[in-house]
Design goal:
six-stranded parallel beta sheet, 16% strand, 40% helix, Rossmann fold, single chain, elongated, alpha/beta, seven-stranded parallel beta sheet
């Protein structure tokens, strides 16, 4: 069988803010590199690890599609574009984040991670992202949604693309507990719940901080935060709520350290108002702790019966749910359900389904019809 060729635009490999997207492509590419001829296009030095056995090619510098400089860059990049068109004419284009295919009338796959840019338009400046997504979807031969919830929301906004959409859910095998992993001394002697990842806008970190200050929050329990350093606004909010002594920041950690933090925690709290999937839910369950989650459809889809759910708009609800977790009987039952829930998710399955999608397109050699 002729080896399937795939061009991956590696935007998510070049930053520290799209870790979930990077994780998806890293895990799938690592598992299929022996069967797919990947070429990863990078515009700058990668900030995230690259899959092994994958060809890497330098690509043009990225510019905002609304910038006037894009026309200047197109002129400078023309020889490189010609090379891509010549050498990779039959390759499938798959961008990590809606980057336009520089070629014309070629095969493409688009992964849709969430519909936050459409459903959460009032929360942030998502116009550019929506425009990129619309253009990518218009030219796509296949669309991969990372959850049933995301697929359902996608079909509401793009009903004409529903027939070329399939769900490929994410996995958890990347996180395993290593007994030798060391973490901050903060976690050695204190009981804590864990908060992981981004804290902007819809992530609802403000509500999380308020919950720690509620009377329903267990008095002995701390909140340990993993991720980027607190900015001045976050520090001011934590101080204003009066919980600075209960919130500990441990910075960015390795996968091994993160697994240990999950294992030692009393629970993992995920108060987001909206998401496309939620890999940390599976990480928490794989790490042997219980997720406490916003009562939103996608979290029920991912966490199943191995989690507790709260109203993310109500700090008292968050705090009271955390308190429930301290009941040993409740916790033990949830841990059993969590272990069973993990069997529904696998990076191996995600890789197999993605490979099947690539091969199907490559063998049929479909071409986009709409290039508006």
């Amino acid at each position: 069988m002729k080896k399937t060729k795939v061009l991956i635009d590696g935007a998510a490999f070049e930053n520290n803010s799209q870790i979930g997207i990077w994780r998806l492509f890293f895990e799938v590419m690592s598992r299929t590199a022996s069967e797919v001829d990947y070429t990863l296009l990078l515009s700058s030095e990668p900030l995230q690890p690259l899959p092994r056995n994958v060809r890497v090619m330098s690509w043009s510098k990225r510019y905002d599609p609304e910038s006037r400089r894009r026309h200047y860059r197109r002129a400078l990049d023309w020889p490189l574009v010609r090379r891509i068109e010549r050498d990779y004419r039959d390759a499938i284009w798959h961008s990590t984040f809606f980057t336009a295919d520089p070629r014309r009338n070629c095969l493409s796959v688009v992964t849709v991670f969430d519909m936050i840019a459409e459903t959460g338009y009032a929360i942030g400046p998502y116009l550019a992202q929506r425009n990129l997504k619309i253009a990518a979807i218009a030219n796509a031969n296949a669309i991969l949604a990372i959850s049933n919830t995301t697929a359902q929301q996608f079909k509401r906004f793009f009903p004409g693309s529903s027939l070329k959409t399939q769900v490929i859910r994410l996995g958890h095998e990347h996180l395993t507990v290593v007994p030798s992993a060391t973490v901050s001394a903060v976690t050695e002697s204190k009981n804590y719940c864990l908060f992981v990842g981004g804290r902007y806008a819809y992530k609802n970190f403000c509500g999380m901080v308020e919950a720690v200050g509620m009377s329903e929050w267990p008095s002995h329990l701390h909140l340990v935060v993993v991720g980027a350093p607190f900015d001045d606004a976050e520090k001011a909010w934590i101080n204003a709520v009066g919980v600075s002594e209960k919130i500990e920041h441990v910075g960015k950690v390795s996968d091994e350290q993160l697994a240990m933090l999950y294992q030692r925690s009393d629970g993992f709290v995920f108060p987001s108002l909206m998401e496309g999937f939620g890999i940390p839910i599976l990480e928490a369950q794989a790490g042997g702790t219980v997720p406490l989650l916003s009562d939103i459809p996608v979290f029920h889809e991912v966490g199943g019966s191995g989690a507790l759910y709260f109203d993310p708009h109500s700090p008292p609800s968050i705090a009271a749910t955390v308190s429930r977790l301290l009941d040993p009987a409740v916790r033990n039952s949830l841990l059993q359900h969590a272990a069973a829930n993990l069997q529904r998710f696998s990076w191996d399955d995600a890789a197999k389904l993605t490979l099947k999608c690539y091969r199907s397109l490559f063998s049929r050699d479909l071409r986009p019809v709409n290039h508006s």
